[in-house]
Protein backbone atom coordinates (compact mmCIF):
# COMPACT_ATOMS: atom_id res chain seq x y z
CA UNK A 1 0.00 0.00 0.00
CA UNK A 2 1.40 3.39 -0.89
CA UNK A 3 2.47 5.86 1.79
CA UNK A 4 -0.08 8.40 0.45
CA UNK A 5 -2.99 6.00 0.97
CA UNK A 6 -1.78 5.24 4.51
CA UNK A 7 -1.59 8.99 5.26
CA UNK A 8 -5.08 9.59 3.82
CA UNK A 9 -6.52 6.79 5.96
CA UNK A 10 -4.75 8.23 9.00
CA UNK A 11 -6.09 11.75 8.43
CA UNK A 12 -9.65 10.58 7.73
CA UNK A 13 -9.74 8.46 10.88
CA UNK A 14 -8.16 11.30 12.87
CA UNK A 15 -10.77 13.74 11.62
CA UNK A 16 -13.69 11.45 12.42
CA UNK A 17 -12.35 10.71 15.88
CA UNK A 18 -11.74 14.40 16.52
CA UNK A 19 -15.35 15.37 15.75
CA UNK A 20 -17.36 12.43 17.04
CA UNK A 21 -18.26 14.20 20.32
CA UNK A 22 -19.62 17.33 18.62
CA UNK A 23 -23.19 15.92 18.22
CA UNK A 24 -23.21 15.17 21.96
CA UNK A 25 -22.12 18.72 22.79
CA UNK A 26 -24.82 20.16 20.52
CA UNK A 27 -27.42 17.99 22.24
CA UNK A 28 -26.23 19.12 25.68
CA UNK A 29 -26.41 22.78 24.65
CA UNK A 30 -29.93 22.36 23.23
CA UNK A 31 -31.39 20.26 26.06
CA UNK A 32 -29.29 21.52 28.98
CA UNK A 33 -29.38 17.91 30.18
CA UNK A 34 -26.33 15.86 31.17
CA UNK A 35 -28.00 13.44 33.57
CA UNK A 36 -27.55 10.44 31.25
CA UNK A 37 -23.84 11.05 30.75
CA UNK A 38 -21.47 9.09 32.96
CA UNK A 39 -18.87 11.21 34.73
CA UNK A 40 -16.59 8.19 35.09
CA UNK A 41 -16.67 7.27 31.40
CA UNK A 42 -15.75 10.87 30.54
CA UNK A 43 -12.91 10.81 33.08
CA UNK A 44 -11.58 7.59 31.57
CA UNK A 45 -11.87 8.98 28.03
CA UNK A 46 -10.04 12.16 29.08
CA UNK A 47 -7.27 10.11 30.71
CA UNK A 48 -6.93 7.97 27.58
CA UNK A 49 -6.84 11.05 25.34
CA UNK A 50 -4.08 12.62 27.43
CA UNK A 51 -2.04 9.41 27.32
CA UNK A 52 -2.59 9.03 23.56
CA UNK A 53 -1.47 12.64 23.12
CA UNK A 54 1.75 11.96 25.00
CA UNK A 55 2.27 8.77 22.99
CA UNK A 56 1.71 10.62 19.70
CA UNK A 57 4.12 13.38 20.69
CA UNK A 58 6.79 10.88 21.72
CA UNK A 59 6.45 9.07 18.38
CA UNK A 60 6.03 12.36 16.49
CA UNK A 61 2.78 11.11 14.94
CA UNK A 62 0.74 14.22 14.22
CA UNK A 63 -2.51 12.35 13.49
CA UNK A 64 -2.40 10.71 16.91
CA UNK A 65 -1.61 13.73 19.02
CA UNK A 66 -3.74 16.28 17.16
CA UNK A 67 -6.76 13.95 17.26
CA UNK A 68 -6.40 13.39 20.96
CA UNK A 69 -5.78 17.03 21.80
CA UNK A 70 -9.06 17.92 20.08
CA UNK A 71 -10.85 14.96 21.67
CA UNK A 72 -9.58 15.92 25.13
CA UNK A 73 -10.81 19.48 24.56
CA UNK A 74 -14.28 18.23 23.67
CA UNK A 75 -14.35 15.91 26.67
CA UNK A 76 -13.37 18.83 28.93
CA UNK A 77 -16.30 20.80 27.49
CA UNK A 78 -18.72 17.96 28.23
CA UNK A 79 -17.27 17.48 31.72
CA UNK A 80 -17.70 21.19 32.38
CA UNK A 81 -21.36 21.03 31.33
CA UNK A 82 -21.81 17.90 33.47
CA UNK A 83 -20.27 19.48 36.57
CA UNK A 84 -22.17 22.76 36.20
CA UNK A 85 -25.47 20.93 35.66
CA UNK A 86 -24.82 18.64 38.63
CA UNK A 87 -24.10 21.63 40.89
CA UNK A 88 -27.28 23.38 39.68
CA UNK A 89 -29.36 20.24 40.26
CA UNK A 90 -27.95 19.81 43.76
CA UNK A 91 -28.68 23.45 44.62
CA UNK A 92 -32.27 23.17 43.43
CA UNK A 93 -32.79 20.04 45.54
CA UNK A 94 -31.23 21.49 48.70
CA UNK A 95 -33.72 22.30 51.45
CA UNK A 96 -34.34 25.97 52.18
CA UNK A 97 -32.61 27.20 55.33
CA UNK A 98 -34.64 29.54 57.50
CA UNK A 99 -32.87 32.74 58.43
Automatic annotation (TrEMBL):
Residue ranges crossing the lipid bilayer per the database entry: 6-26, 38-58
Domain of life: Bacteria
A Pfam short name: PQ-loop
Protein name per its UniProtKB record: MtN3 and saliva related transmembrane protein
Phylogenetic placement of the source organism: Bacteria, Bacillati, Mycoplasmatota, Mollicutes, Entomoplasmatales
Chief location bin: membrane
Source organism per UniProt: Spiroplasma clarkii
Record's bilayer topology term: Multi-pass membrane protein
This protein's UniProt keywords: Membrane, Transmembrane, Transmembrane helix
Cellular compartments annotated: Membrane
Record-level GO cellular component terms: membrane
InterPro entries: PQ-loop_rpt
